[in-house]
Design brief:
Rossmann fold; alpha/beta; GMP Synthetase, Chain A, domain 3; globular; 2 domains; nine-stranded mixed sheet; about 500 residues
């Protein structure tokens, strides 16, 4: 089954329903969206000689064309490569090369930022441009049938080696994620709407599928992102809004409402994830927002679907274990198994800390062109997440630390090794170590400990901005004579964290 069947189904059943809105203005009905997708798919296929399993990248901010571009790729059996629009051109170039994408679809405002990528103008299609609209006027083509285990999308997630890895997400993975939304996260009605306040290339965009299946509305904010005042206004004009948010977004919304109290009855559900949310922040958000929150825990390797902390668990403050539960990431999604194992892969008893592993129909089949990384991460059908935690006697998973040293800042993943490799390219840098530092606004921020005889923060910042996305660069630099190490020469990041605690 092709995941694009979700669109075709809704277009047949409810052709006149509004599918996409820009702000509170209708853009396309489901029949119109399906028709444009079928034509765009054929136009892409003809212009670029695309065949099933060819890769097509989307490097775009949130825009009204995003979903039609995504579904057109699926419609003809190609593989989508959604790319974070905040990435540096060098990072974009790596993903394009690694995925072997034949075409890059880019939003208009980003077109001027990609001059240095190794793609010719003939390989680039600007969303909404005259060329794009011309392609959309091609004759419609039939939806191509796909097997459930065919790859639908390559989602690139940073790795501890410093190079992004392409997670192969199959039609089965995406369909399983879609169905588990209804069973574990929330029900969706025909009058409901999802608003894309976070990047559509990531978690927010992945939630398009259950709303597409229900024939619900898809709202693109005119700002293209998260603006509390705009979001509240749309909740009042469009109504029944649901959205995915990083904890930092939830905190900003709560702060806005405290300063400017407003009617938020039109906000139905806020699904948060991508980073920890502290207990006091959860309590505060529930007090201001009411019982609208649901938490999910997932990875690109098991998209949006490992565990879920349901609305009733978050809102039930009378439960004797309420504080423990809101500090957890909930219970396994109904289609997933979750376990805790020791360093030898042996499952440990309840309450014992170990590595979190999971299995189910949402788990990826492999990393793109990375057999060694796949073998390390997938063992005996289980996905080894690299996260550590424990499961209590009631089945709730609490995360304790990330064994891969992942830094999650504002819902975005940042790997220290990636930053360290960039900083080490400067001839004046002798040694460097990057760790995460707790931050009230962002959850964590990356900071760098640098050993160098003569270099400034400004030089290091400029180096980072030349090679990686702005949001990944260290927010502070500490200069040391040497890094703390053990007898084997391994840097002791625990000692560096102690230095931060003394500030």
């Amino acid at each position: 089954m092709n995941i694009a069947e979700l669109l075709r189904r809704s277009a047949k059943v409810s052709p006149d329903r509004v599918a996409i809105l820009v702000g509170d203005q209708a853009y396309l009905s489901y029949e119109q969206l399906s028709s444009r997708v079928a034509c765009l798919g054929n136009g892409l296929k003809s212009k670029y000689d695309l065949k099933p399993n060819d890769r097509v990248a989307i490097f775009s901010a949130n825009c009204k064309e995003y979903l039609e571009a995504l579904y057109a790729i699926y419609w003809i059996g190609a593989i989508s490569v959604p790319i974070n629009h905040k990435l540096h051109p060098k990072e974009l170039s790596y993903i394009l090369e690694d995925s072997g994408a034949k075409v890059l679809m880019v939003s208009d405002e980003l077109n001027g930022t990609i001059k240095d990528i190794p793609y010719s103008a003939e390989q680039i299609l600007v969303l909404g441009s005259p060329d794009y609209e011309s392609i959309c006027s091609a004759p419609a083509v039939q939806l191509l049938r796909r097997e459930l285990d065919d790859v639908a999308s390559l989602f690139y997630t940073s790795g501890t080696t410093g190079k992004p890895k392409g997670v192969a997400q199959t039609h089965r993975n995406l369909l399983g994620m879609t169905m588990s939304y209804f069973t574990d996260v929330d029900e969706i009605g025909a009058d409901d709407a999802i608003i894309y306040a976070a990047p559509m290339s990531h978690g927010a965009g992945l939630y398009n599928y259950p709303f597409m299946l229900r024939g619900a509305k898809h709202v693109i904010p005119r700002s293209g992102g998260f603006d509390p005042e705009e979001l509240i206004g749309l909740s009042q004009t469009v109504g029944n809004l649901s959205f995915f948010a990083a904890p930092t977004m939830v905190k900003r919304l709560v702060s806005h409402l405290e300063n400017q109290p407003s009617d938020i009855s039109g906000i139905k559900t806020i699904v948060y994830g991508g980073a920890p949310m502290y207990i006091e922040d959860v309590k505060h958000a529930l007090k201001v927002l009411g019982p609208k929150l649901v938490q999910i825990y997932g990875q690109g390797e098991s998209p949006m679907t490992i565990t879920v902390l349901a609305r009733e668990h978050l809102a039930n403050s009378n439960h004797p274990k309420w504080e423990e539960r809101i500090a957890s990431v909930g219970i396994p999604h109904s289609i997933m198994e979750v376990a805790i194992v020791d360093h030898e892969g042996v499952q440990v008893p309840s309450g014992t800390i170990g590595e979190v592993i999971t299995k189910g129909d949402v788990v990826m089949p492999y990393y793109w062109n990375q057999a060694e990384a796949t073998a390390k991460t997938l063992r005996d059908g289980w996905l080894y997440t690299g996260d550590t935690g424990y499961i209590d006697g009631d089945g709730f998973l609490t995360l304790k630390d990330r064994s891969k040293d992942l830094i999650i800042s504002g819902g975005s993943n940042i790997y220290p090794r990636e930053l360290e490799e960039v900083l080490m390219t400067h001839p004046a840098v002798i040694e460097v170590a990057v760790i995460g530092k707790k931050d009230e606004e962002w959850g964590e921020i990356p900071v760098a400990f640098v050993v160098s005889q003569s270099i400034t923060e400004q030089e290091l910042d400029a180096l980072c901005l030349e090679n990686i996305a702005r949001f990944k660069r260290p927010k502070k630099y500490y200069f040391l004579k040497s890094l703390p190490k053990n007898n084997y020469g391994k840097v002791l990041k625990t000692e560096l964290r102690k230095l931060l605690e003394k500030e």
